[in-house]
């Protein structure tokens, strides 16, 4: 669940960042994809850490 939220949030933030940089449609898609991937990887590690902490 955390990973899915991170993907959506990353894509939205990437698109917003590209719009502020006056990027065209391809720029917006690339920024959204890269941000979504980075956010997903970070969220995956956070999920693993939370799982390990709860299992003790």
């Amino acid at each position: 669940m955390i990973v899915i939220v991170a993907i959506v949030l990353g894509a939205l933030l990437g698109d917003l960042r590209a719009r502020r940089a006056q990027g065209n449609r391809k720029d917006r898609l690339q920024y959204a994809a890269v941000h979504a991937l980075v956010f997903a990887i970070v969220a995956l590690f956070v999920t693993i850490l939370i799982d390990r902490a709860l299992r003790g």
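The chain has a mean pLDDT of 97. DSSP finds two helices and no strands in the chain.
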